[in-house]
Amino acid sequence: MIRLKRNLLLTMAVVMVTVALPMNEALAQKKKKKSDAPVVAAPAPEKKPEKKSIAELTKGSKKFEGLFTFYQDTVSGELKMEVAKDQLGKEFIYFAQIGDGVTDAGTFRGAYGENNIFKIVRYFNRVEFVKQNVSHYFDPSNPLSRSADANISPGIMASAKIEAEDAEKGTILIKADNLFLKETFSQIKNPPFPGESPMAFRLGNLDSEKTKVLAIRSYEKNTDLAVEYVYNNPSVLNGGSSAVTDGRNVSIKVFHSLIELPDNGYEPRFDDPRVGFFTTEVTDMTSASATPFRDLIHRWDLRKKDPNAAISDPVEPIVFWIENSTPMEWRGTIMDAVLEWNKAFEKAGFKNAVQVKIQPDDADWDAGDIRYNVLRWTSSPNPPFGGYGPSFVNPRTGQILGADIMLEFVYHTNRVVYDKLFGEEAALETHTSLGNQPHFCFVGAHLQNNMMFGQAFLRAHGASDLEMEGMKKEAMAELLMHEVGHTLGLNHNMKASQLFSPKELADKNVIEGKALSGSVMDYLAINLSPDKNTQGHYFSTTVGPYDVWAIQAGYTPVKSQAELDPILALSTKPELTFGNDADDMRAPGKAIDPRVMIGDLSNDQIAYSIHMMETSKKLMEGIKEKYSKEGQSYQELTQAYSVLMGTYTTAGGVMSRYIGGVYVDRAMAGQEGATQPYTPVSLKDQKRALDAISKYMLAPNAYQIPEDLINYLARQRRGFNFFGGPEDPKIHQQVLNSQRSVLAHMTHPNTLQRMVDSELYGNEYNMATYMSDLTKAIFDADINGNVNTFRQNLQIEYVNTLKGMVTGPQSNRYNNFAKSAALYNLNYIKTKVNNSSGNVSSKAHKDHLKLVINNTLEDVK
Ligand SMILES: [Zn+2]
Predict the structure, then answer these.
(1) 3, 135, 227, 415 - which has most CB atoms within 10 Å?
(2) Cα 401 to middle of ligand 1, angstroms
(3) Where do runs of H (alpha helix) occur along 628-766?
(4) Is residue 47 part of a domain?
(5) What is the Å distance from ligand 1's center to 387 Cα?
(6) Residue 456 Cα, ligand 1 centroid: separation in angstroms?
(7) Which positions fall inside the EcxA zinc-binding domain (predicted)?
(8) In a domain, 468, yes or no
(9) Domains in the chain, number
(10) pLDDT tens-digit map of 92-148
């Protein structure tokens, strides 16, 4: 045994020497050995360098003991990592988080990154770091499980040479710089988008000399490394925003966490389509079911201290820490809002499930420490969100291991982050490459618009400072509850706003102490009562019935999945209705159910939208007076105008989704209260929506922007910032953008396709009839006389849309019925514009229309 070990060591030593020496020297040594061979006299034993032990190799290093022990050389900073014998072949969790970044590069403080499972596997004198696939399940009792790895590629992220080995303990030592100073575990630099502008900000190449380990923290169950990645670009076209000090040298700080897999008997819970949790998708490869899903919902490991009690404290509560950077005056509101969730947990059998503590000013830990769940505040130059509530999990079980909430100060101020608020939601959604993360949340930006709209409303009504503060606190509470909901595992419920009727919402006695919608996980419109005396809550101040029920479905302790069936069977109750982002209608042509929408409120979204548009119009009349302050520029007035226009456009967008809409019911067959999965919107509601859109967005006098206001829509000059483009108010373009935002949906190929298809299953609004109605709404009122410039813009836009449907580059997306309708309406308009009546401007406009139509019809021939 001993001999064997020694032999092994000797072999190892030879290998080490060979590898350690440059190639030619190693060859020379080999040759030398051969030529020495014939010499008869016993040669003096060759002096081979002793293989160094772990202790010797780490002699001048600082030791960081924990789950993984690290050594950092005190002279060079070189990093070495120890792997214990029992850690080889075992699964670990990897998790990455951005410590600090720049939004220019799609990275920002607190952004969560990779969260996966890896193994360290020995291969001769090396170890490999191998990412594991968690997407498939094979029933171990099924013989098919023997081919569980068939056609599934593992991810070998790195291979490191073993530098030393403890023969007794089996511990090995490897160099770790290549693991953590390179993008081995995580891709940090985003690839360029297809078709990205050459002017776009780009990170340079990773600079291995400047990239460095900032800190190592090793604990019993996790080891964290903070690394500063520096990207070098000798020559930059776009130096980035003010957040980038030097576009040629950009730093991104990343926390890497290596975490022990919890071995705690946690029971995974599987996803159900009727309630909205974040999940890790797992497919059962040995199941013959049509739905072989074992999708793991993300939730905390809550267990009752007293399993027999109806309501018990949890063994381990979910503790949130308010970061010590939080403004003092907000701490109370924040704490109360977070604790509101305990009302939901009580219905799931837990009291004090959620606890809130305040990080002491002299705390010896920071928010990057994954052992703490922190509510963090930042005031970033280019805030990427208003709130962000990510969590990281054990990918094998879905158990949430930690979560943070990032909150941006700017959304609680009057500084508008985006200049363009006119129905350009899409721009908000995609301005960073991290926008496609499921945890990414724009409710903060949305709430800021609401809050500023509320401010304009309250100012117009001469509200007191106290009322104003109260409204802002409600907005803050709604934001906090929403983000905490994310960290509890809940995704958005954009359908929840259906809870109350407009009449109920306008009555403070009805809504007192209640949530305004089924869920705080929605993006609601602000609740404004037409009568100031009956005004109740502006925002939700407690969690909604859906939230309570979702927590019950996710957290009620059960012995088997079947015990959850009675809870899930309640999903058909109106107050528990659910539809997430994937089903929602914010992008034109996307999804199908108009109730699953953002910026809406009440079970009559058309009526509520009309109310919001009327309110916007009324406020528009008075803002010049209310927002012009002596000694100040008109910046705030211009912003208030933007907010009013933005809300007006959002309300129009909400209504447009009724046209060609189909209600979706995700109840299971035979479930009590279930309806058929697809029910088209009634003819009456589709017509109501079109009529309101015609009146408020398409009619000749739809946008009544007071003319004496336009002269004052002036942003304050700052340096040379008008170099970007002329500063004058571009009213025609703004109005057209607002109209485009609804027309994009109303003439979308998906919408027109669905109108035709749904005629077969209940839709009574014939697509051709609808297109004809839309054309009449855009032309009939003024085509025989003078056409004002807003209508000219709209009519040209519409004719170009019809042209695009038959001959444009996107025309193949439209079905034949839509093309026929487009041609029919072009011919209709042609007969109308033949009159060439009206003033010079109107004549020119009609000639323009005629030319476009004739050319299009000619092209089709
Ligand atoms: Zn959200």
Answers:
(1) 227
(2) 20
(3) 635-656, 683-693, 707-710, 731-746, 749-758
(4) no
(5) 7
(6) 25
(7) 467-782
(8) yes
(9) 3
(10) 999 999 888 888 887 887 788 889 999 999 999 999 999 999 999 999 999 988 888
CA dihedral 112, 118, 122, 128 (to 10 degrees): -40
Residue where one domain finishes, among candidates 736, 765, 794: 765
Same domain, 583 and 634: yes
pLDDT, residue 376, reads 86
Question: Do residues 714 and 624 lie in contact, with contact meaning Cβ atoms separated by under 8 Å?
Answer: no
Inside any domain, residue 233: yes
- Final residue of a domain: which of 211, 238, 260? 260
Tell how far the Cα of 283 is from the centroid of ligand 1, in angstroms: 27
Backbone torsions φ then ψ of 667, nearest 5 degrees: -65, 155
- Give yes or no: residues 367 and 514 share one domain: yes
pLDDT at 757: 97
The token duo for 43 is 């040669």
Does residue 772 share a domain with residue 761?
no
Residue 237, pLDDT score: 84
Distance between Cα 54 and ligand 1 center (Å): 49
Report how far ligand 1's centroid is from the alpha carbon of 441 (Å): 4
Mean pLDDT estimate for the chain: 88
| Domain identity same for 368 and 385 | yes
Q: What is the pTM of this model?
A: 0.88
Whether 272 is covered by a domain: the verdict is no
Spatial separation of the C-alpha atoms in residues 277 and 297, rounded to whole Å: 6
pLDDT of residue 289: 93
| 611 and 590, same domain (yes or no) | yes
484 CA distance to ligand 1 centroid (A)?
A: 9
Write the DSSP symbol of residue 236. Answer: -
Q: Tell how far the Cα of 72 is from the centroid of ligand 1, in angstroms.
A: 41
State which residues of the chain have pLDDT below 70.
1-49, 380-387, 414-440
Strand, helix or coil at 571? helix
Domain containing 419 equals 318-424+440-765
